[in-house]
Every structure is written in structure tokens, then in C-alpha cells.
Amino acid sequence: MATPVSKIATYLKNNVDKLDPQIKKEHIYGMMISPNERTTTEPIILVTEMPGGHHTYGNNAPILTKGKIQITIYYPKNYREDMESLELSLKAFLLSKKITCYSDAGHVLTPDNQQITNTLKFNFIKEDI
Questions:
Q1: Which of 16, 17, 85, 129 has the fewest CB atoms within 10 Å distance of its CB?
Q2: Which Pfam families would you find in this protein's record (predicted)?
Q3: At what angle do helices 83-95 and 4-14 cross, to 10 degrees?
Q4: Is pLDDT of 15 > 80?
Q5: Which of 41, 62, 82, 64 is nearest to 26 (CA)?
Q6: Is the dihedral of CA 42, 70, 99, 1 positive or negative?
Q7: Which residues pair with 73 in a beta bridge?
Q8: pLDDT tens digits, residue range 39-96?
Q9: What one-character-per-residue DSSP string does the chain give?
Q10: Which of 78, 52, 49, 84 is nearest to 65 (CA)?
């Protein structure tokens, strides 16, 4: 059975033509970035799970499962393209699939790998994905 992360990562890859042109299929990952990833010019998209999902019950049985994922975007330090349009395209596309963004951490330059990152957090209903 596929996990929500793998479903969403695959869904993004299969619909990359509906996202911002800065997003490339080969740079979208679920759970971990490939050790073979070597881009220094394009953003990398990483989809991971988050704790905090819960159930809605009816007649003492779960009828709805809510979950959370996060998408971390890694931009090269010298990235000159429009980060906001890339992020808005991800949010809008996932929203059209009932996966809603509830947190946008903002851009941070990481001291360890000198990349610009932003983490977007999303809610979803498991039955919808």
C-alpha cells in the first residue's frame, strides 16, 4: 500500500506540466533526496510525513482520517528565479486536490549546505488522495 507521501510525490511528478515551469520531475522526491541528486541550478522538492494526523469517529469507528505532510523546497544559494510563483503553484495545485497549506515557514539560508529553503505544511484527508 502506498503511503500518502509517495502518492503525493508521484502525483506531483505526474502533473509537473500543471506546476510552475521551474519545477522539474526529476527533482521531486518522497521521503528522501536521492544520493545521486547533483543539481546546483534548479530547486529540489522533498515531500515528507508529519505527525499529528487524527481520526473522526462515528458510532465508535473511524470514518475519516486526517493527515499532514510537508514539502521542503531547496533552492541553490544563487537562485534568481521567482520562488514565490513556484510555491504558489504548488499550493494552488494541491488545494485543487483538497490538500490545504496551513503553514509557510518563509525562506531561510541554511548554514550547513548554503541553500535557501522553505517548508510548506499541508493537511489532507486520507480518503481524498
A1: 17
A2: DUF806
A3: 110
A4: yes
A5: 41
A6: positive
A7: 45, 118
A8: 999 999 999 999 876 777 778 877 788 899 999 999 999 999 999 999 999 999 999 9
A9: ---HHHHHHHHHHHTGGGS-TT--GGGEEESS--TT---SSS-EEEEEEEEEEEEEEETTEEEEEEEEEEEEEEEETT--S-HHHHHHHHHHHHHTTT-EEEEE---EE-TTT-EEEEEEEEEEEGGG-
A10: 52
pTM of the entire predicted model: 0.91
Q: Can you give the length of the chain in residues?
A: 129
Q: Within 13 A of 21's CA, how many CA atoms are on the CB side?
A: 1
Q: How far apart are the first and last CA of the chain?
A: 13
